[in-house]
Write a structure and sequence with these properties.
The chain contains 14 helices and seven strands. With 425 residues, the chain is an alpha+beta fold. The chain has a domain of 287 residues: Orthogonal Bundle (Transferase(Phosphotransferase), domain 1), CATH 1.10.510.10. The N and C termini lie far apart (161 Å).
């Protein structure tokens, strides 16, 4: 059993995949039978309605309403044994669901505490029509002792009294916190009330091995149970489906399924299915919704177990919701005088695109200027300055060298000798 999301209707949907040892033809036939259950539109406050069915490969699947609530098999561990006043409203709701579905030719056949989801105010059952669909294609439906009726265990024909047996077994476990073993249930203990013997007799009749000895309808069983708890005698047979009158919705009665005596497929076993926990975001979403919206998962233990929801599968056969119509009388309106056509407003001027090249050019020029300036400064720093002649030093110099430099330069010796020769007589 798995949870998926239906975007078209913004809701969570419970999907059960039937992984069985079936041929492709049998898998297709199973999907068609499950779709027949969806077409019956079992719209009842205590029934988790099947929305549609389909097939992926050789795996048939059925989609149903998703309800966030605790299953009864978990609640039994905390609240059983319970008083008769606590058990009676629960039994009344489930009995109404059983008889209501039977008017459409659909039974349960394998009712188990795991198929019932409870809140402080209501109880809802899921899995109607699954056993009939499996039997219709020749597959062996699951047997879930001690809740399954003996005629179902023996693979014989069964009717609403098989569901009466299952309801009696669940009621006994709620009252005593013990599972029944046939019709010999013994005492009920302190929770049986002052008329425990009468209540035990009613439960024993509901758990009779012979279907003919049981109550004809589930509501007849509940009426006898209530009368016994008050110390009153039986009040007779109760109408099968008072809930149809209360809800104002009658189910569509499809053809009664035919039971085939074909060989069983696979061995009989009760595998159990682990429920999937909501993710954190979806738990917060469900917490905002009313508590009556409770997980409506098909939790039947089928031969071969179940598999994950097939990704990308579109659920077919979902019932179409009735369209809402508004009936209102509207007075005719006087025609309005024509007026001059209004010229459409001129579109706003398109903003001029900003030039793209101008910022680029300015940036380039600025870069060139900065580069030129930097190069000039670097080149000026590398050039060495020229030293001026030290004239003052020459003027103020003293010593022998200075005196020699200040004397007039003498004639060379050759010229002096020549002068002397010329002067001699």
């Amino acid at each position: 059993m798995f949870r998926t999301y239906e975007p078209a209707r913004d809701r969570l949907v419970a999907v059960k995949a039937f992984r069985l040892d079936l041929t492709p033809e049998q898998a297709r036939a199973l999907a068609d039978e499950l779709q027949r259950v969806a077409d019956a539109s079992l719209d009842h406050p205590s029934i988790v309605m099947t929305l549609g069915a389909g097939i992926e490969g050789t795996v048939a699947y059925a989609a149903s309403e998703y309800v966030a609530a605790e299953s009864l098999d978990v609640a039994l561990r905390h609240y059983a044994p319970a008083s008769l006043e606590t058990v009676l409203p629960f039994m009344t709701q489930i009995a109404g669901a059983i008889d209501f579905a039977r008017t459409a030719g659909i039974g349960h056949g394998a009712l188990h505490p795991r198929d019932v989801f409870v809140t402080p105010d209501e109880a809802r059952a899921t899995g109607f029509g699954v056993v009939q669909a499996l039997e219709k294609i020749g597959a062996r439906a699951p047997v879930r002792r001690p809740y399954t009726a003996p005629e179902r265990v023996e693979a014989g024909g069964w009717d609403v009294r098989a569901d009466v047996y299952s309801l009696g077994a669940i009621a006994f476990e709620l009252i005593t916190a013990r599972r029944p073993v046939g019709a010999d249930i013994g005492g009920l203990g302190a929770t049986g009330g002052p008329h425990a013997a009468a209540v035990a007799a009613v439960l024993s009749r509901a758990l009779a091995d012979d279907p003919a000895a049981r109550f004809p309808t589930a509501l007849a069983f509940v009426a006898a149970f209530e009368a016994a708890s008050r110390g009153e005698g039986p009040t007779g047979v109760v109408a099968a489906v008072p809930a149809a009158v209360e809800t104002g919705v009658a189910p569509v009665a499809p053809e009664e399924p035919e039971l085939h005596d074909e060989p069983d497929i696979g061995e009989e076993r009760d595998t159990g299915v682990e429920e999937i926990q909501l993710r954190e975001a979806e738990i917060e979403r469900e917490a905002e919704r009313p508590s009556s919206a409770a997980p409506s998962l098909f939790d039947l233990d089928l031969d071969g177990g179940t598999e994950d929801v097939i990704p990308g599968v579109q659920h077919t056969g979902f019932p179409h919701e009735a369209e809402r119509r508004l009936d209102a009388s509207v007075e005719p309106v006087e025609p309005i005088e024509p007026i001059e056509p209004i010229e459409p407003a001129a579109p706003p001027p398109r903003p001029r695109p900003r030039p793209v090249l101008l910022p680029v050019a300015l940036t380039l020029l600025l870069g060139l200027f900065v580069g030129f300036l930097a190069g000039y400064l670097v080149g000026s720093g590398d050039r060495a300055p020229v030293a001026a002649p030290e004239r003052g030093a020459a003027a103020t110099a003293t010593g022998p060298k200075a005196e020699v430099a200040s004397q007039p330069r003498a004639n060379p010796p050759a010229r002096a000798a020549a002068g002397q020769t010329a002067a001699a007589p």
